[in-house]
Amino acid sequence: MIAKADILKRLQTAAGKPGKKLVELVYIETRTALSRFAENVIHQNMDQADHRVMARVSLGDRVGLAVGNSVEPEAIESLIRNATEIAENQNPDPGFPGFGQSPPVKETPGAFSSATAELSAVGRAMAIKSAVDACRKENLSAAGLFKTELKASAVVNSLGTTQYFAETSTEFSLTASDDAALASGWAIGCARDVNTLDILRLTQTAVRKAVLSRNPQPLPSGEYTVVLEPAAVGQLLLMLGFLGFSGKSFAGGRGFMAGKIGEKITGEKITIVEDPFAPEMAGMPFDYEGVPKQRVVLVENGVARGVVFDRRYAKMAGKEPTGHALPPDNSYGPYPRNMALAPGTVPFEQLIASTAEGVLITQFWYLNFLNPGRVQVTGTTRDGTFLIKGGAIDRPIKNMRVTPAILELFANVEAIAAERVLYPQYSSIMLVPGMKVGKFALTEDTEQG
């Protein structure tokens, strides 16, 4: 990793040179190491390091962007020249909000772990071996990945903004399966510090689910009470982020939050906060425009409260930016990457124990948009779906098709677990509990036979 002082000096020198243009430089350095395994064998080891520099140049409301991979001073100067030439040939952009001057942010405790940064391929292999051995004892096949990432981000502009953040993360996932018995079990975990990642517990969870799910039986289509494990809740929450918590859809009058601020949109048990400062997440404290991030209440006791903004869509909506701009070479707009769903008061096991008859769902598979206007998605259950009877697991059932309208689903929440776990997906990390939901439609998947 390039030293903080070194990279900031290079960026400040390039951005601070006098001229009629304004310059913004974004630097992202990553080192990703992972081991993938399938059928009880590691089949891929990768250790990849890369860095990107993005230069945006503003000539009034004409803006140019150039992207490169070199951090040598002459290469950064060349990027700025390229971005300037692009800006000179652009049409005016009346929506461009300009660059901002932001104060330096405080360091985020717990975001960086030397143990994670230094974990070797041998260390990953030993952890995978323990998972494979546990699967073999139950005649199961193990598949999954073990990944670590080291990342540094910096934003510097010619107005004086200077931000820098270094972080580590690690992720372990395991699918234990028995194809002959149509059985599979799954678990996933993530952390900043690899020493806090409980791979043994994750392995035991995946193996236990696979063993319990052998020889699943069909369940008739209908409405059921369901108990959703945290990963399933996280997958639904991620869809809400895509469908409505972005300032882009809000400012454009699209998305379920547009025109709904102050109105009830879910059940009162639901509170969702974009909270990069939660100790469990230790998120990046600024965005890729250098704006300090804010904690944003999205939904409070079922009432729509706010969305996240970058500078462009804040200007369009007449709001202040919340520090959620993505890198300048993206077109997705601002996005909440550290959502937390408020916990309930009962242990997760009580959600099952209090269910006379229902279905336990581990996770969803191929969840995708079905009807964005209704905030409706479709997918199937996966890797451990069980019938609950008399407050206990009764038997495994075959995977079923789901088509929930998420806001309606959240209106039918009966109870939320007190425990929360981190769930990673699509470069987001969410802090989520399990929940019990009534009137959940499940459809028998006839393709399973």
Summary of the model, kept short:
This protein is of the alpha+beta class. The protein has helices at 4-15, 73-88, 114-118, 121-137, 199-212, 230-243, 247-251, 311-317, 348-353, 406-411, and strands at residues 22-38, 41-59, 62-68, 141-157, 162-178, 183-191, 222-228, 272-274, 296-300, 303-304, 339-341, 357-371, 376-389, 392-396, 400-402, 413-425, 428-444. The protein folds into two domains: 4-128 and 149-169, 2-Layer Sandwich (PmbA/TldD fold), CATH 3.30.2290.10; 216-449, no CATH class.
Explain this structure.
23% of the residues lie in helices and 39% in strands. It has a six-stranded antiparallel beta sheet. The chain has a five-stranded mixed barrel with strand order 7-12-13-15-17. It contains ten helices and 17 strands. The protein has helices at residues 4-15, 73-88, 114-118, 121-137, 199-212, 230-243, 247-251, 311-317, 348-353, 406-411, and strands spanning 22-38, 41-59, 62-68, 141-157, 162-178, 183-191, 222-228, 272-274, 296-300, 303-304, 339-341, 357-371, 376-389, 392-396, 400-402, 413-425, 428-444. It is α+β, with helices and mostly antiparallel strands. Strand 2 and strand 3 form a beta hairpin. It folds into two domains: 4-128 and 149-169, 2-Layer Sandwich (PmbA/TldD fold); 216-449, no CATH class.
